[in-house]
Amino acid sequence: MRIPAQSVCTAIRDDIVSGVYERGSRLTEELLARRYGVSRVPVREALRTLESEGFVVTRRHAGACVAEPTEQEAADLLEIRMLLEPLGAARAAQRRTEAHLKVLRGLVRLGQERARRGEGEDLRSLGGWFHETLAQASCSPGLIALLTQLRHKTAWMYAVEQPARPVDSWAEHGAIVDAVARGDAERARALTAQHAERSAAAHRLRRRPDRPGRRPAPPSRVSSSQHDVNIASARH
């Protein structure tokens, strides 16, 4: 089965974000193709995409390597995200569908229940889904793409502490959804800006470990456009 370059790109990006490939480590086409069970062609295309996104750099005499962002670059990205998320919420208030609202309300309900019960293990993923859905509700492909890339990069560069009072955090999510449902773009923008500013304080810059690179984890799963494929056994 042919695995599209986009799926290979997603798998490599996920492995970079999760730390399987540490910053500065080499990414050779041959080893990547073997790891993901594909030919070198989609790997080459994926590396070009990841370079355009800032996850990969090409170095003379070394080839493709995982990028090593500076503290200033990381701070800039977090600030950009804080500026764009309120814009996404304002657009969502103007363009959201009933389907978007249904998902957002469902996520808020789940988040509030988990927060009240002290079940913090699910809150991080629920928060990610909430912000992803809020971005999708903007119905702006360019903005959605930027916010998606920013979420990936901030997850790579920062560790995020759980809020001290998750009930309050999910109350803020609920207020944002209420503003979006009413079509109140300015209130949705203001509430999201306040939430983003508070959330930014919980971000802690990840430091590159002073030790040899870790051994790669078992191969990920690459999702093709039609099937979920175990890339260790897939063949191109």
From TrEMBL:
It comes from the Bacteria. PROSITE patterns: HTH_GNTR. Keywords: DNA-binding, Transcription, Transcription regulation. SMART domains: FCD (SM00895), HTH_GNTR (SM00345). InterPro entries: GntR_C (IPR011711), TF_FadR/GntR_C (IPR008920), Tscrpt_reg_HTH_GntR (IPR000524), WH-like_DNA-bd_sf (IPR036388), WH_DNA-bd_sf (IPR036390). Residues 2-69 form the HTH gntR-type domain. One of its GO terms (molecular function) is DNA binding. SUPFAM superfamilies: GntR ligand-binding domain-like (SSF48008), Winged helix' DNA-binding domain (SSF46785). Residues 195-236 are annotated as: Disordered. PANTHER family: GLUCONATE OPERON TRANSCRIPTIONAL REPRESSOR (PTHR43537:SF24), TRANSCRIPTIONAL REGULATOR, GNTR FAMILY (PTHR43537). This is GntR family transcriptional regulator. It comes from Streptomyces cavourensis.
